[in-house]
Amino acid sequence: MLENEAISLEKEKVLIIGTIRPGMNERTVNEYLDELELLVDTAGANVSGRIIQKISKINASTFIGKGKANQLINQATDLGVKILVFDDELTPAQIKNYHKISDNLKVLDRSGLILDIFKRHARSKESTTQVELAYLEYLLPRLTRQWTHLERQMGGIGTRAGMGETQIEVDRRLIRTKITKLKKDLVRIEKEREIKSMRRKSEFRVSLVGYTNAGKSTLFKALTGSEVFIKNQLFATLDTTVRHLSFDSSHSVLLSDTVGFIRKLPHNLVASFKSTLKEVVESDLILMVLDISSEQIKDHSVVIQDVLKSIGADKIPIINVLNKVDLISENAMIEKIKKEFSDSIIISAQRHLRLSQLKGQIIKRMEENYQTLDVELSYSQGKMIAKIKNTLEVLEETYEENIVKMKIRGNRSIIKEFSSKLNSFE
User: Fold this and answer.
1) Tell me, which fold does domain 201-353 have in CATH?
2) Does 201-353 match 2-173 at the fold level?
3) Three-class HEC string of 9-31
4) pTM score, two decimals?
5) Over the chain (426 residues), what is each successive 10-residue block's mean pLDDT?
6) What topology is assigned to 370-425 in CATH?
């Protein structure tokens, strides 16, 4: 089966294709193709060239029109290219039509390429399950007779499956069965994550989110000292890492580093990573890490906010962390970008610059989220007293003849929860 086959890392030649549609310009499309080229490199292949095609509307058969499609395939043949990668998402029918025109070429769209990369980088049981589910859901409608046995010989990125029509039907049934099993596995994984989440409910939780390769993992390591995998590559890590971070005796947080976001992230991939991204949804504060040296910083911010909205995390307070300031030499440029991003901290995680300011802002947000409450409990409420001591900060404690007086401090939501429980005893 395709999903279990090893994918060759040989440096295959790739041609990347972008389209200029109404309302777009060539510069923007070239910026998109720069990113697509990074994705291709991450997948282990070489870009031999790029083609930008201006179209007034999307062609249902080949996306760019049959004549242009034939020209494209001829160019690929001349360059010795084996893979075409479109920056746009192609329908299963469009991919099938390209395979009809040339059965010596593999045709991928951006979503297929990203899924291929995720398959390479998934390590934990959770991320492996999530990626495999998304990959199979993407693959299922794309199994056609055109996906021949040559793929098993060709290997490389975007490997296709299928032999004869009968074998395709067998593959489809097997894939549907596997999808059902993976969905059940994810439900179980999500329940396990919810149990862990309940244990951490009393903690102030901070999540790092950002465009892939913006330096989230470098910042995570700089703040926590934790050894995490860091590589200057898109989607170097997919698993959420959570560490305890103490600022002083009365301020500590749980800091989580999540998968990086990217433009046109496949919808079924976002859906599959729902349990992982739930760490973000349950945060008290989000640090949006942006690469201040990137010309696309505004676009990256929009992409992140769109993903946050899609998972229901758009109401959580955000601090914009403008990273990689060491890569900019002009102060005027730094000030200009800072003005465009309100409530932002400029740092260099790599060089540990201005991290104290970031920590100060996190503490400030914690204080805004904290509440102090005076409570009185009878000695018969021993379990409640113990729970308060384990969950909240006890500022003062006085033992009298029949009651214990306590001044407690903690997360507003936790204080509210304890307050309602105490009132129910009255």
Assistant:
1) Rossmann fold (3.40.50)
2) yes
3) CCCCEEEEEEEECCCCCHHHHHH
4) 0.77
5) 40 93 91 91 91 94 94 93 93 90 87 86 81 87 52 44 56 87 89 70 85 89 75 60 85 86 81 75 93 92 91 93 94 91 92 95 90 89 86 88 88 80 61
6) Alpha-Beta Plaits (3.30.70)
